[in-house]
Each structure stands twice: as structure tokens, then as C-alpha cells.
Here is the input.
Amino acid sequence: MGSIQLKKVEKRFGDVVVIPPLDLEIEDGDFVVFVGPSGCGKSTLLRLIAGLEDVSGGTIEINGKDATSVPPAKRGLAMVFQSYALYPHMSVRKNIAFPLRMAGMSQAEQDAKVNAAAKVLNLGDYIDRRPGQLSGGQRQRVAIGRAIVREPDAFLFDEPLSNLDAALRVNMRLEISELHSTLATTMIYVTHDQVEAMTMADKIVVLQAGHIEQVGSPLELYRSPRNLFVSGFIGSPKMNHITGAEAAKHGATTIGIRPEHIDLSTTEGMWKGVVGVSEHLGSDTFLRVDVGDLGTITVRASGEFAVHRGDTVYLTPQAMHLHRFGPDGLAIR
Amino acid sequence: MATQHSRSAARLMISPAVLLLLGWMIVPLAMTLYFSFQRYNLLMPGQGGFVGFENYRYFLSDPAFFSALTNTLLLVGGVLFITVVGGVFLAMLMDQPFWGQGIVRVLVIAPFFVMPTVSALVWKNMFMNPVSGLFAFLAKGLGLEPFDFLAQAPLMSIILIVSWQWLPFATLILLTAFQSLDSEQLEAAEMDGASPVSRFLFIMLPHLSRAITVVILIQTIFLLSIFAEILVTTNGGPGTASTNLTYLVYAQSLLQFDVGGGSAGGVIAIILANIVAIFLMRMIGKNLET
Here is the structure.
């Protein structure tokens, strides 16, 4: 149980329209990621679903029932905040038990549930400490624990990993994914990091300025972005966009080619360019190649590719991976 | 820069200030102690001399002493209760966004800038006066008998006046505490199913505990020595109904001209204030740690 439908949901702050009317369907058990640049309204959308903000128009249905004016606590949703929002004066145990205590559950039942959650999340060692004595990753786990014990219909995550260091982020990403497969509960996850979106999501919702640009599975978005924005946002390093005469040759206003879909050669190819900055990552080498009229193009070479700044290289885009976009920015299929 | 040399230089530099403050404190304290063991009455010059604990025995066996002690504790306790409860309430209201917030915040501080004597006189003559005061006017408007605050409930009236002066202080400190409360915590509590009352009890109040401690500690220091408000309103009366320790010491030394007895009272007041301070630190001082 945990399907959510947004119907013509709209949010305005005064005269500023943050989210123009928007429809979205989230099915039970989905891991949905809202992704978009800062200020695109993804957090606002999550807060609308949570009930922390009132909608300016439209309806939100949870499990088929209209929940638009239901208070947040009664929606059966649990939220993990960016700052974790743990209660600093309570021990980890009390933090996790807080929603149960508010629901008027007996002490024995509370203990049983808290212990179960602590086991799932490995909180055992610091269950009696206060949040101030925990590291970022531990706090994150406690915040998730507090969400789990409520056994909600859906979890809402608001950029939960943005305060963690890179290594921990990868770990927590895996843990949250595993949690999703264990609990099989609907999760809605907000992030600005497209890597998180690609690795965790069943379904990605790409937002820009409150509009849904595209909804689809990670690979769908990667393979067939609907428009220029999505093509540039999904994938790392981002897709090369080429306009002008070269694009016109392919019957498009803009053509897009991902760095990993360009063949690189030192002897022959379609486009001739001069190597600029190169980033050697060991497994990959990213080259920034200056190709005269076409501008600077990023190319991925696998492994160690021995070229230096100022060397001449030849690039050949793989025709089957070429994306074509019309004058309105939409993909031409 | 914490070398041996810089440390001793620092001690040398700071010593004049420390010595000055020490002298400033030690000299009056030593004189008070000295006088408290002397027969020193301004009406009987030339009859001085060491009298041992006679002054203390006299002051402690004075029936006014115990009523002064109770009044002091009632005054401090009453004002603390009103300012903390009222301060939390006002701070919570002022933390909400509303039109004219800036001006209201400035206005709320205003009573703190009014001199104690002035505010007490304003309350005495313009509000509590049974003939021409505003409260009497309101009571008469409602067809009630005007209440003579300072004659019938002198201590309560003084508690009200002093509370009015200290409410802004408590409100401001607590308001800053409210402003430092993470709104995500309140939202998390809301999602966790906490009602507004539970959110206040479980999230806001614990967050305020440190600020409340600061308010109580600072106010207690000042409230133990309330004097001007009593002098200009009731003069400690009727009888000793509104006499606190500070006022009793004043009455002893400057109304009965018994400087020795007054000094003994002063020393007793110092000891009692320290006892109160120790209790306070024991009870709530631990809130300030970590």
C-alpha cells in the first residue's frame, strides 16, 4: 500500500508560481527519484506530498483517497530530512520511539519496535547516545530508523545524503537501496545529484522550474532523453551539444552525442581537434577537445589514453548514439 | 603564543584590573564585617566598641526578619514565575511572522529602559491609585469597588511592577532561543504525529531549557536586591508586608540609625544570597553544561 497520485497539483507563493499544475502517478513499491537543478521545486513538491505545505490547487491522492487536506501526521508518510532533524535532547532510542510515543503506543511495544529497527540499521552500539555525539552517517541511520518504526505507506527523503562525505554517500546509497528491496515500500527521494538518481531509482522524475521534463527509468532517460534539458542533465560527464552547420547535416537544430559514444583516434576520423585539459581517472580518461567551429567537445577514452595538451586527435561520433533535437528543444525520433 | 613568557606578561598586564576589582569588593565587604561587630548607632555617638555577635542576635531575633525573608523569596519566586511563563508565551507569539514585527519588538524592550523608580511611580500613581488610577477608573466603570492595590496587596503589587520591568528581558532571551530552533525539527515532529501541545512540550520547551536557565540565574541576582520599587511605592509597609531583606537592612541602618545592626543584616543577606545561588546552580546549573 503506498500509491500516490498528483492531479493538477499547483503551488504559488504570492504571485510566484513555484509549481505550475502538474500530474504525476507513483505506484506502490516504486523507488521514485525527483531530480533537478537547485530551485527547480523538487523539495517543494515533496513537502506538498508530505503535507508540510498546502497546495494552491489540485488534489493529492494517497492510496486512492483524497489526502489534499489531511494533516501530515495522518497521511501515513514518513520523512527523512536533509538536516536529519533529530531531537537533540533525546537519546537515539527516544528519538526513534518518538512517533510511537505520540501514537500512544505502550512502552513494551515501543521497545520491541525500536529494537527491531535498531537491528535492521545496526544502531546497537549507540542507541543510548544523543544525536550530538554521533557522526553524520550514524545520524542519518537514526533518522531513517525514526521513519521505519512508523511503518509508513511511503518514505519521503529530502536530499538525505547531501551532508555526508563522498565515501559514506556511496555506502548509504547502497543501504537505502537495500532497505527499499527489504521493505518493498514506496520511496520518494529528492536529490540534485544525477548519480544518486541513476543508481537508486526505479523511476526518475526530471524537474525544471516546477515542470516535469521527463519521467522514466534511468536507462530510458539515458538512452532517449525527451529534450535538450534532460539530455544535458542525465549522464556524467554531460552530453555534448552541437549546433549550426554540423547539426543541419543531420536534419536537426542541435545534435547531442555523449562523451562515451565518440570514437577517438590519433590518426583519422570525422572531426579534427586539439586536446585541451585531460582528466585521468585511471579507469577512464576524459579529454576536452577543441574542435574548431564545433566548440569544445568532451570525450571519454577508456583506460589510460596517452595524449598531451596540444596533441591533435580525431573524433568520430557513433551514428547510432547520435541524438537529434528540433528547434523547440524536443528530440526528433 | 602560549609561551611561558607571554603567559607571565599576560598576568602582569591583567593584574591592575584584577587588583582594582578585588579592592573595590574587599574594602566595603571588610568594612561591613567590621561594623557588624561594633556598637555603631548614629543617635548615640561616642558609645562605640566591640559587641561580638550582639548585632546578629538582634537582627535575627527581630520579628521583621522572618517576614522580610519570606517576602524576599516570594518576590523573587513570583517575579521569576511570571516572567518565565509570560516570557515563553510572548516570545512564542513574537516568533510568528506578523505585520509590524520590527516595531513591536522594539516596543517590547521599552519597559526595560525605564528606570525602576520611574516605572514604580507610574504604576503607583497612574495605574494602582485607588482614586485617580486607571484600574480604579475601570473598576468604577464596571460598577465595582476600586481596589487599593498597594494597601491591600502590597507584595503582590510590587511583584506585578517588577515583573513588568523584567518581562521584556525574559521575552528577548527566549525569543532568540525560539529563533534558533530548527524548523525542520518541528516539521519532523509534526510528521511524527505530535500535536501542537506535544510539539511545545517535547521539542520547544527542551530547546528553551538553557535560555530559561540563563533568565532565572540572571534575574535572581537582580531580584534579590530589589529596593527602589519598594522605597517609592509602599516604603516596606503596611507594617512589614512588603519589606524584603534589602529594605530591612536599609530601614535598620538609615531609618533607625543603627549602622552596626544594618551591617549585620547585610552580612546575613550576603550569606542567604549565596545559599540561594548554590541551590540554583545545583538545581539548574547543570543545564548550562555541554
User: Anything to note?
Assistant: Chain B touches chain A at residues 182, 184-185, 187-195, 198, 202-203, 206-207, 209, 290 (CB under 8 Å). The CA atoms of residues 34 and 228 of chain B lie 27 Å apart. The longest helix of chain B spans residues 4-36.
